[in-house]
Amino acid sequence: MRTLLLLLTGLILVGLALRLLINLVRHRPIGRLFGLIGLLGASYGALWLIFFLRQGYRPVALGTDVCFDDWCATVTQVTRLPGSSNDRLTLAVQVLVSNHGRGRAQTPSYPRLHILDQRGQAWAAVGTGPIPLATRLQAHESKAIRLVYKLPLGAHNLTALLEEGPWLTHLLLPEDQPIFVLP
């Protein structure tokens, strides 16, 4: 539904912009079209802001699938690595990715797993194993992936946020995001 609303708004805006150009070429008034474009853009922006302000995190347990269409991933294990120094904490996060699709291979679109602390500070993985998070999976296939993170030693109340999609997905109306609570 969120995608449909964005597409519908975008198509209407493109149609109004084309009509505006036609009116410019034909030397017809364009004030009303500017008003409609502004009203539609402001309405979607206000609706997006309301959803953004109401957005939150929904804690999920380790081992729970978080799915984006048919591509799913779950954090299965978090291990503190012995390479941790006095000022850095090194974590290895095991992620199980799977394709729940019906008969076709899938590659996720820009998947990301960030570790968040109690203040909302986010860290990206500094290393991966031989299989990247954005690996292509055949139908009903699963693969285990290992991601390594280096965090400040004082980071606590850690969670893992899984996201998928290009920058354009940030234009969709925000919704509660599942977040893994790490031990």
Walk me through the structure.
With 183 residues, this protein is α+β, with helices and mostly antiparallel strands. The chain has 2 helices and 10 strands, in the order H-H-E-E-E-E-E-E-E-E-E-E. It has 2 domains: 2-54; 58-181, Immunoglobulin-like (Sandwich). The protein has helices spanning 2-25, 31-54, and strands spanning 57-60, 66-68, 71-80, 88-99, 112-116, 122-123, 127-128, 142-152, 159-163, 177-181. The strands form 2 sheets. Strands 1-10-9-5-6 form a 5-stranded mixed sheet, with no helix packed on it. The chain is elongated.
Low-pLDDT sequence parts: none
Widest sheet: strand order? 1-10-9-5-6
The helix/strand order is HHEEEEEEEEEE
Q: What distance separates the N and C termini?
A: 35 Å
Fraction of helical residues: 25-40%
Instruction: Tell me the domain tally.
Output: 2
Shape designation: elongated
Average of per-residue pLDDT values: 90
* Tally of DSSP helical segments: 2
Structural class: alpha+beta
CATH class membership of the largest domain:
Mainly Beta
Task: Calculate Rg over CA atoms.
Answer: 22 Å
The tally of beta strands, per DSSP, is 10
CATH architecture of the largest domain: Sandwich
